[in-house]
Design brief:
Helices cover about 50% and strands about 10% of the residues. The chain is built from 17 helices and six strands. The protein has a six-stranded mixed beta sheet, sandwiched between helices. It is an alpha/beta fold. It has three domains: about 180 residues, Nucleotidyltransferase, domain 5, CATH 3.30.420; about 80 residues, HRDC domain (DNA polymerase, domain 1, Orthogonal Bundle); about 70 residues, HRDC domain (DNA polymerase, domain 1). It is flat.
Length: about 375
């Protein structure tokens, strides 16, 4: 059960300025955002929560101009002020996209928990374990863009930042005891450099749906047609695509197309309402699908040589041995893509440089990797 946090609802420029001033005066504050990605196609920041010196503010950006939030973003960007977040990767990107906001100094409690070797690093789990505070899981899929927002949702949103400062303090103490606090500083600093990038259109994006790659011929064409239609309709209605047509019924329609809207209504996951609204258009698309794009015959990529595969295997063994000794996940201390880059590059030290192995990872793994590469040559 949550304690009574009594969060302040801020939906005016003056209220934002007061919250920003409190954060600046504290020199250290917690920050989180809530977006409506489960309820809209063009998802946006719907709430901004800040906690500083036991003052909890939930900012509503929807009625505000983007410039009204500038006082807060100036504090966030100040490297003399510490911003504590949890799992900040998405927040960093969406704040850059919507407000060109960047963080000057970050402590991410999820990164800290990972570097402690925690198996579970979600905020709800950590709050329950550390403070015996249980968050209501019913609110995880809430529509944060709805207004007015229910009182219990405002309290739930405030809880995402209310305990972060103390949580970060506890995790830091444990990291310092293990000599890993410097690792956390480095990882958090790297995260502050992340920026939003629009993904380039991919004509084969439809194949990312589980089961789509198994389709052949006309079934593949029909699935591609439905996938494109679903995206068009979702954009038009500003709905997430799954709220127009789910992946599972879309696969079934492509593999075994029904004859007409009436039969379409009997497909599991659709029903009469879907058939009335979209039946005619979906039936037309299924009957006359455009050809799905094919994989292009690009330049032939040579498979890794025997020597390269041997180096990769040895590097993975060394990494996993070190990770196990530290109680950490192997992918955390050196992702597989980095291992592959090291194995593919010539030489030892030069290979580590080319793959970007630096900082605490270089200090932890460098000499062992160089020895492994020498052995595997």
């Amino acid at each position: 059960m949550l304690p009574d946090l009594r969060p302040v609802w801020a939906d005016t420029p003056d209220a934002v300025r007061r919250a920003a001033s409190a954060c600046a005066a504290a020199g250290r504050f917690a920050l989180d955002t809530e977006a409506d990605s489960l309820h809209s196609y063009f998802h946006k920041v719907c709430l901004i929560q800040v906690s500083a010196a036991n003052q909890h503010t939930v900012i509503d950006p929807l009625p505000l101009l983007a410039s009204d939030l500038d006082p807060l973003w100036r504090v966030v960007a100040n490297p003399a002020v510490t911003v504590v977040m949890h799992g900040a990767d998405y927040d960093v990107r969406i704040l850059d996209r919507d407000y060109s906001a960047c963080i000057g100094r970050l402590e991410d409690t999820q990164i800290m928990a990972q570097l402690l070797g925690e198996d579970r690093t979600g905020l709800a789990f950590l709050l329950e374990r550390e403070f015996e505070i249980e968050l209501d899981k019913r609110h995880q899929r809430a529509d944060w863009g709805a207004r007015p927002l229910a009182t219990e949702l405002v309290a739930y949103a405030a809880a995402d930042t209310a305990f972060l400062l103390e949580l970060a303090g506890r995790l830091r103490e444990r990291l310092e005891a293990l000599g890993r606090w410097g690792w956390a500083i480095e990882e958090c600093a790297r995260l502050t450099t992340v920026r939003h990038e629009e993904a380039a259109p991919d004509p084969l994006d439809f194949e990312r749906v589980k089961g789509a790659r198994a389709l052949r011929g006309r079934a593949r064409d029909r699935f591609h047609e439905l996938y494109c239609w679903r995206d068009e309709e979702a954009r038009r209605l500003d709905l997430p695509p799954f709220k127009v047509l789910g992946n599972r019924p879309m696969l079934e329609l492509a593999a075994s197309p029904p004859v007409g809207p009436a039969e379409l209504a009997r497909v599991p996951g659709l029903g009469p309402r879907f058939a009335r609204r979209w039946g005619a258009e979906v039936s037309r698309r299924l009957e006359h699908p455009r050809g799905a794009p094919q994989h292009q015959r690009g330049e032939h990529v040579s498979p890794p040589s025997v020597a390269e595969r041997r180096r990769l295997q040895r590097l993975a063994e060394v990494r996993d041995e070190i990770a196990a000794r530290l109680g950490l996940q192997g992918g955390l201390i050196c992702p597989r893509a980095m291992l592959q880059a090291i194995a593919a590059a010539p030489g030892a030290g030069a290979a580590l440089d080319a793959a970007g192995l630096s900082g605490w990872r270089r200090e932890l793994l460098g000499s062992s990797f160089e020895a492994a590469l020498s052995e595997a040559i």
